């Protein structure tokens, strides 16, 4: 018997959708932060690559 996502059946985002969206936002913000840190280090002569 297949499992149906009730939220999708009634046309609203599911908990998994919300979690995936949040993870995408956090990953984007982390990448922005790493770029900012690297840019800051470049300007101040303390280059230590952050990954």
Brief account:
The chain is mainly alpha-helical and 51 residues long. It has helices spanning 6-9, 15-43.
Compile the SSE list and pairings.
Blueprint: H1 6-9, H2 15-43
Span of the ends, CA to CA? 44 Å
Task: Give the helix tally.
Answer: 2
Largest sheet: none
- The gyration radius over C-alpha positions equals 19 Å
Mean pLDDT: 87
Helix-strand sequence: HH
Structural class: mainly alpha
How much of the sequence lies in strands comes to under 5%
* Count of extended strands: 0
The quaternary state of the protein chains shown equals single chain
Which word captures the global form?
Answer: rod-shaped
Q: Give the proportion of residues in helices.
A: 55-70%
User: Spans with pLDDT under 50 lasting ≥5 residues?
Assistant: none
Written overview of the protein:
With 51 residues, the protein is mainly alpha-helical. 65% of the residues lie in helices and 0% in strands. The protein has helices at 6-9, 15-43.
Task: Give descriptors for this structure.
51 residues, 2 helices, 0% strand
């Amino acid at each position: 018997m297949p499992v149906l996502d009730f939220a999708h059946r009634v046309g609203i985002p599911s908990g998994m959708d919300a979690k995936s969206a949040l993870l995408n936002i956090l990953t984007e913000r982390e990448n922005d932060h790493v770029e900012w840190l690297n840019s800051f280090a470049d300007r101040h002569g303390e280059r230590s690559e952050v990954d």
